[in-house]
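seq:
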Amino acid sequence: MSLEINETLSIDDDLLQERFIRSSGPGGQNVNKVSTAVELRFDLAGCAAIAPRARARLERIAGSRLTDEGVIIIRAERFRTQERNRADARDRLAEMIREALVEPKRRIATRPSRAAKERRLKAKTHRSDVKRMRQGKPDLS
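struct:
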C-alpha cells in the first residue's frame, strides 16, 4: 500500500517508516502503558518521484521537521488510538507534499498610474497643511 498524494503521484511505503511511541501529556495510567503516538519518517532524499523544484519547496515547508539526512519527521499524538494517529500523520505528510507541488504564481511588476501618484502627493500636501495649522504659537495673554 502506498501513500496517495494526488492522481499522478504516490509515495511508496519503503520510503515511509512508522514508529509507535508513548504520548506525552495527561491520560492516567493508559498513557504509561500504551504506545499510541506515531513518529512517521519520510525519506525525502531517497524519493525520486518529487521534482527538484517541488522538493526545494517541500524542504522549506518542512522547516525544523527536516533532518540533516533529508528525512522529514512527523509526530502525531492527537488521538487516543494508534490507527487514528497513523492516519493523521499520513494525512499531514500528504498535505505538506500537495502544498509543495503547487507552483507559486510569478509576480508581475507594476507601476502606479499618474492619477495615483497625484492623489498620493495631494494627500501628503493636505496632511502637511493640517500639521502646519496645528503648530500655531500659544497665546500667553
